Amino acid sequence: MIQYNILYLLIGGTLMFSEIFEFIEKKNIYSFAEFVSICIKYHKDWYNALYENESLRWMVKEFIESLRWENDKSYHRVDSILRENYGTYGYLEP
Fold first, then answer.
1. Residue 90 has what DSSP assignment?
2. Cβ-proximal residues to 57 (8 Å cutoff; 6+ apart), any chain
3. What is the CA angle 83-75-61, rounded to 5?
4. What is the pLDDT of residues 51-85, one digit of tens each?
5. In the chain, which ranges are continuous DSSP H helix?
6. What whole-number distance in Å separates Cα of residue 17 and Cα of residue 10?
7. CA angle 68, 70, 76 (to 5 degrees)
8. pTM
9. I want to staple 87 with a disulfide (CB 3.0 to 4.6 A). Which of 43, 47, 68, 93 is the partner?
């Protein structure tokens, strides 16, 4: 099982993580509970990744909390270095 998890993270996990964060940001999700409910209903693979990976759970919670803070404070990352170098959502675009 440990070998599977390591291999999963090396090959597909990081791609899934980027997909998760991009989804959360694009859909303006500000609640971890809401995100988990979406995962249970529509993204079983994401739910399984959250369940199995404590680091991912923590990162998702922090990401959602940061987005909520940005929204509450009307903070805009328009001129962010990430957006300048990596695209609209701060992710490498193909």
1. S
2. 50
3. 80
4. 988 988 999 999 999 999 988 988 776 655 555 55
5. 2-8, 14-26, 32-42, 44-52, 54-72, 81-86
6. 12
7. 145
8. 0.70
9. 93
Q: What's the token pair of residue 91?
A: 């992710």
Distance CA 39, CA 23 (A): 11
How deeply is 62 buried, as exposed, middle or buried, from its count of CB atoms within 10 A (0-12, 13-18, 19+)? exposed
Scan for tokens 């998702």, then name that residue.
60
Helix (H, G, I), strand (E, B) or coil at 50: helix
User: What tokens appear for 61 in the block?
Assistant: 């919670």
